[in-house]
Amino acid sequence: MKKLFGLLSVLMILASFLLVPNQDVFAKVIVTYPEVTAVLLGPPICEKVWTSGSVSHIRDCVFQQAYSSDDDFRLVGTNTLTMNQNIFGEYGFPAVGHGTWVLEAELVEGGYWAGTYTANIDETGYMSVYIRGKGYGTLEGLQLDNITHGMGGADTVTITTLPSYDGPEP
Q: Which of 2, 75, 112, 162 has the fewest CB atoms nearer than 10 Å to its CB?
């Protein structure tokens, strides 16, 4: 009886595997590299600026950039940045900074980008800015990464489209 029960159990388990529908998964991550151009819309407006010893401290500086892209309309709009920076030299470098950014996507209803960035200016004045963010609203499911070497001009960004994204396509 035990052998029969064991054999029936094995057959039921095998039958359950055969009856479960086999579905292919088609979701995948898509990575694109659109070019974006940023133009400063004016000087930063800073809440706090002070010097302590040989270090200049700048806090809560807000400035805006106009973003445009021929490759991806989701990157067209006004980018508002808030910056905090410490300057260790008398000419504006070396320096380190960080902040937040919000890009209002003017051509995408109900969508915007937001994220953070860090910046480093070495002793020669060479700047590297590491930008990371994601889409919100109708841009939910997109991630944006960029390494740029200035605060303006043309750059190629990386946009990662996650399987959950169902918003507008470029």
A: 2
In the beta sheet, which residues pair with residue 111?
Answer: 137
Q: How far is CA 162 from the centre of its chain?
A: 13
- CA atoms lying within 13 Å on the CB side of residue 133: 23
Q: What's the angle, vertex CA 106, arms to CA 45 and CA 36, rounded to 5?
A: 75
Instruction: Tell me the domain boundaries of the chain.
Output: 24-161
For the record, the structure tokens of 151 come out as 């605060």
Kindly tell me the sign of the dihedral angle through the C-alpha atoms of 49, 41, 149, 68. Answer: positive
Report whether 67 contacts 37 (CB < 8 A): yes
Q: How far apart are the first and last CA of the chain?
A: 66
Residues facing residue 23 across a β-bridge: none
How many beta carbons lie within 10 A of that of residue 39, not counting itself? 11
> What's the CATH code, domain 24-161?
2.40.350
> Along the 170 residues of the chain, how does pLDDT read in single tens digits?
666 555 556 556 655 555 555 555 567 899 999 999 999 999 999 999 999 998 999 999 999 999 999 999 999 999 999 999 999 988 889 999 999 999 999 999 999 999 999 999 999 989 999 999 999 999 999 999 999 887 778 899 999 999 989 999 98
Secondary structure (3-state) at 15:
helix
